[in-house]
């Protein structure tokens, strides 16, 4: 099959629609993953077993089941118990929830890396727990883990095509749909593949530079 630039031109409007949806899912999913991950990490350090044990069980379950299964569950099963969600909303929640279990481990490592003396100093100053976490521990822990969190954003980008399975047509979903309609897969799939490289590779270089800067 020969390359046809007319096909590329015809596909581009749908490609940009897919880019917009991909960016929406990636940004919102990342924010959800970072926020929930921090909640899980702090909860897992709780002295109260009724908080620590269920949170640990849930994060282990989510981390050890496929993202695709979770997306299907959220889109097809959850609406039987409550309101139905749009494909994009489901994709954002699925990506965010799934990756929050990985970012929780990143946060945990960062928290464990805070010197014990910092905890002791906070105790000596009689700081309340909330103040200890927000003013002493978390600022140091998060600074250590920013590069690792960035790596999970790239991983989420590469997993974003899975949300097309539930009808959220991101870049690859639009390419597959266009190919099914026109029987031309070469051009749209190639354009999407190059787009992923153009987005992911510079992002990985930025994360490496950030990591070098933070470890100085």
TrEMBL record:
It comes from Streptomyces glaucosporus. The chain crosses the membrane at residues 20-43, 149-169, 189-210. Its main location: membrane. InterPro entries: AA_ABC_transptr_permease_3TM, ArtM/GltK/GlnP/TcyL/YhdX-like, Ectoine_EhuD, MetI-like, MetI-like_sf. Belongs to the binding-protein-dependent transport system permease family. This is Ectoine/hydroxyectoine ABC transporter permease subunit EhuD. It is a multi-pass membrane protein. It is found in: Cell membrane. Keywords: Amino-acid transport, Cell membrane, Membrane, Transmembrane, Transmembrane helix, Transport. Residues 15-207 form the ABC transmembrane type-1 domain. The keyword Signal does not apply. Pfam families: BPD_transp_1 (PF00528).
